[in-house]
Design goal:
Order of helices and strands: HHHHHHHEEHHH
Largest sheet: 2 strands, antiparallel
Radius of gyration: 34 Å
Distance between the termini: 106 Å
Shape: globular
Number of strands: 2
Strand content: under 5%
Strand order of the largest sheet: 1-2
Helix content: 40-55%
Structural class: mainly alpha
Length: about 210
């Protein structure tokens, strides 16, 4: 009986000691770290603000890649598979007539093929560079309407309105300016796409893909 009593007493003491050993200790939380209400998330709450953040043009410097990506963003926000309300196609918004000049005759296939679109852009820039080769030498570095004329600005404007219209603009010193259906003028493109390095593209007469 005595042994049994000693055993149970020891067991009770052991249980009491273990309960103290595993009891968690709670430190008081500083007042500045206490959460007393819902926390505001620093993220746009409406779609307009979200789009303003997400839709940003790529910044690739003044290289040729920077030039074509900036131009593509202006034309289509860089979307290979879009067609605008006037029927212009793809990332660089090509018209059917221009595509035929460089050897592309299937608009559906063109719209589905990003590699072909990149080749078309490069080919068309080479074509416009050939057409404007004398004007590039003559007008590059000049000021027209307070804007410095550069080779990249001229080529971007030619993509917008055609090389012939760019010639008219330069040779009239800005008096003859044209705009596309959305109101974008040659002068705006010459200013917006000024100063890119497009020496990577060599002028070619009637190039084909």
């Amino acid at each position: 009986m005595r042994r049994c009593t000693i055993f149970f007493c020891s067991l009770i003491m052991l249980v009491v000691l273990m309960s103290f050993s595993f009891k968690p200790s709670y430190a008081e939380v500083p007042e500045t770290l206490k959460v007393n209400g819902p926390t505001e998330v620093l993220f746009p709450k409406n779609k307009t603000e979200l789009n303003a953040i997400m839709i940003m043009p790529p910044f690739l410097g003044s290289s040729y890649v920077g030039f074509k990506e900036a131009l593509a963003f202006k034309e289509s926000q860089g979307n290979y598979f879009t067609t605008n309300t006037l029927g212009y196609l793809g990332k660089y918004q090509f018209g059917i007539g221009t595509l035929q000049l460089i050897g592309v005759y299937n608009a559906v296939s063109f719209l589905k093929d990003p590699v072909l679109q990149e080749r078309a852009f490069h080919t068309n820039i080479a074509r416009n560079k050939w057409i404007l080769r004398r004007d590039i030498k003559r007008f590059e570095g000049m000021q027209i309407g307070g804007v410095k004329v550069t080779e990249s600005g001229m080529l971007a404007a030619a993509h917008l309105a055609g090389a012939g219209n760019v010639k008219n603009y330069l040779r009239s010193l800005g008096e003859i300016d044209v705009s596309d259906a959305y109101g974008t003028s040659i002068a705006k493109y010459i200013k917006k796409f000024s100063g890119y390095d497009v020496s990577h593209v060599h002028p070619k007469r009637n190039p084909k893909i």
